[in-house]
Amino acid sequence: MLRITGLSAFPITPSDADGRVEADALRRLLEPLAAAGVDSIGLLGSTGTYAYLSRDERRRAVEIAVETVLGRTPLLVGIGALRTDDAIRLARDARAAGAAAGLLAPVSYTPLTEDEVLAHFEAVAGEGGLPLVIYDNPATTHFRFAPELIGRIARLPGVVAAKCPAPEPDAAAAGVAALRAAVPTGFPIGFSGDWNATEALIAGGAAWFSVAAGLFPKTCLALARAAEAGDADRARALNAELEPLWALFKAHSSLRVVYALAGILGLCRAEPPRPIRPLAPEVQAEIAGMQHVLSLT
Questions:
Q1: How far apart are the C-alpha atoms of 121 and 276, rounded to whole Å?
Q2: Mean pLDDT, rounded, for 124-145
Q3: Quick one: CA torsion of 77, 120, 2, 103, rounded to 10 degrees?
Q4: Which of 141, 213, 244, 279 sits CB 3.0–4.6 Å from 9 for a disulfide?
């Protein structure tokens, strides 16, 4: 059975102005992640701008990724959609292309109730044919999971893990404990929100779903492994080295920063999908001058 733990790296999905995935650029981003030995790759997550791509391009991105990683690294693929039937179709597409699991966020326009979200997961888990990761991202979906709801969904057949926003560091122990108490014993609870993730991992989080790891897998992997080994001092020291990057993420959004960094590092030239705009030239120049950040590779 698939068990999602350790470091999951979330890259951008380079695409052109018409929303067509740039295959060579995506391969250049994915290859270093597989080579570094990350535990999984989060393809078409929020950083991967899944909501801005057509069904055909989402399927094509998975096919490109599967060809690139060649079975070396499990692929977790974003399958979120406004409609339940569309999410089911996306789950089937991802499974057929070779994905290991689907990242299911309760994407909405009309605010959803807890019962509606539960039914959504039940339908996609039952009909999509793909193991599911609960994708709790209230910053984008505007739906916030209570621990009790995560516990109910975690007990559905086919739901294998949860991706939750990391609590603030001073609330990490209590937040992780509340989630772990709500789910079945051994059910993996992982965390996103890079700048808060370290304390959540130290408190017992099973996985780090990391934007930074999409560009800096070796550095992020060292931090994740330190936390897994119970070496809190080492994990915190590595996190301190990443603070300049966390400051950029908080000031300008992690999505815009990693698009800029992908170009600065020479991995690919891509702009986020409109209406999202690239960072202003002066901000990009500031980032390009931050040698400590660039040396993380």
A1: 29
A2: 97
A3: 20
A4: 213
What is the rounded radius of gyration, in angstroms, for the C-alpha atoms of the chain?
18
Residue 197 backbone zone (phi > 0: left; psi -120 to 50: alpha; other: beta): alpha
Q: Cα(58)–Cα(43) distance, rounded to whole angstroms?
A: 9
135 noted as active-site residue: yes
pLDDT for the residue numbered 1: 66
Q: How far apart are CA 111 and CA 125, in angstroms?
A: 21
Query: How far apart (Å, rounded) are the C-alpha atoms in residues 171 and 292?
Result: 29
Query: Exposed/middle/buried for 5, CB within 10 Å: 0-12, 13-18, 19+?
Result: middle
Annotated catalytic residue, options 135, 218, 250, 259: 135
The CATH architecture to which 6-240 belongs is Alpha-Beta Barrel (3.20)
Q: How many residues does the chain have?
A: 297
pLDDT at 260 over 80: yes
Q: Which of 50, 52, 109, 163 is catalytic?
A: 163
Domain boundary assignment for the chain: 6-240
The pair of structure tokens assigned to 160 is 């294998």
Q: Which residues pair with 189 in a beta bridge?
A: 162
Paired strand residues for 15: 21
Both tokens assigned to 236: 């915190």
C-alpha 12/C-alpha 207 separation (Å) is 19
Known catalytic membership, residue 250 = no
The tens digit of pLDDT for each residue in 39-64 reads 999 999 999 999 999 999 999 999 99
